[in-house]
Amino acid sequence: MPTSPAAQPDIPDQAPSRQKPGNRIWRNWSGSQTATPAAWLRPESEAELVRQLRNARGQIRVTGAGHSFSALCTTPDTLVSLDRLRGLVSHDSQTQQATIRAGSRLQDLGEPLWELGQGLINQGDVDVQSLGGACGTSTHGTGRELGSLSAQVRGLRLVTPDGEVVEADAEHNAEIWQAGATSLGALGVVTQITLQNRARYHLAEHEFLLPLNEVLRRFDQLARDNRHAEFWAFFRSDQAIVKLLNETEAAPTPAPRFQLPVSMVLNLTSRVAHGIPGADGAMQKLLTGLHSEMRRSGRAYQIFPSPRDARFNEMEYEVPVERGLECVQEIFSTVRRSGIRTLFPLEYRRVAADDVWLSPFFGRDSASISLHQHICTDYRPLFDLVEPIFWKYGGRPHWGKLHSLDATRLAELYPHWEDFARVRKQLDPDGRMLNDHLRRILVQP
């Protein structure tokens, strides 16, 4: 485990929460999941959490930033907020590892790690999630040789629902470490995570339009030639947005004098697209028409994220990479024939294989394919139409996104399913960490 120097740059742990326990009603970011817990705990230390869990009643669930679309956090009983468990605990300059409190937001990690000479190996373009939630659901960025955040977990510390504190890494409680790196919050409350990082670095971003047919033809080469490559493709447009990221030594670019208010435009065009028959194609062509080629460079943690304020619901599956583009083509032909209105594009990324038991990337390089629908419309017609296509291609759902699979079908997708179940029962024999959603997806009848 990392050493603990006397002084460490800290991440503020008193930042105001968007939702406070006194509000009584908990909502996730998109508003698709709600709960009214009987008790809403907000411990300021692990010791306080231990005392609270020993006195807690009923189901216990944990929330960080509420950025999962699935019902991972809902409970009528006890909800634990990790908002006050933030900050850097320790670091090791030789191994480039850092131990961080699980309630820390990804967006708060960049500067403190930079001061230590470290940076996250990879991250996505949304950075508001808590570290515990991001690792607990295998949240990821993109990159042919880069894994999810769960793949970087080198140790963790959790409190069981009975109040026992457990530390786990590759040498101690190794099975708990393997299960805990992607745990869905089903083992207990993870309070600290040790991440494998790397030396800090700068990135150069290049974003541009290409005809969709050309993107599909060239994407495998783009993924080989660039550290990060992804694209967004609109269902009623023949243009796609491509984004490439590469390490650079170029000087950081200044912030632009004018930035298109992307969230406002997406909100407006979404309401038009879903409110007026036939308008979705016109709105998608408008969005690609407004897009201009963009280049920028800077510290990696400043370049990875993009504004994501227009709210939506999302489904994402990870399919074997060799079938990814074929899956995209079938999705496009199916959606275009259906006449279902859409505004948000399909997103396509690459993620490297890992060996984390419940990671959707276990044992195989994957194509990550995401669908979105703005909150102004019912997401179910689109998601219900496309989900069977993901199954056809051997897809595994992202744990934090919407899907309809249950434990019986999920067990077929994960070689270590029974191992995880055994560790879960060991740490939580009474199933107190399971809400209705988790019982459906983790417990076979």
Automatic annotation (TrEMBL):
Keyword Glycoprotein (UniProt): no
One Gene Ontology CC term in the entry: membrane
Pfam families: ALO (PF04030), FAD_binding_4 (PF01565)
Region feature Disordered, mapped onto this chain: 1-38
Listed SUPFAM superfamilies: FAD-binding/transporter-associated domain-like
Recorded GO MF terms: D-arabinono-1,4-lactone oxidase activity; FAD binding
PROSITE patterns: FAD_PCMH
Keyword Oxidoreductase: yes
Keywords of this entry: FAD, Flavoprotein, Oxidoreductase
Residue span(s) of domain FAD-binding PCMH-type: 33-200
Biased composition (Low complexity): 1-16
NCBIfam families assigned to the protein according to its UniProt record, in alphabetical order: bact_FAD_ox (TIGR01679)
Name assigned to this protein: FAD-binding protein
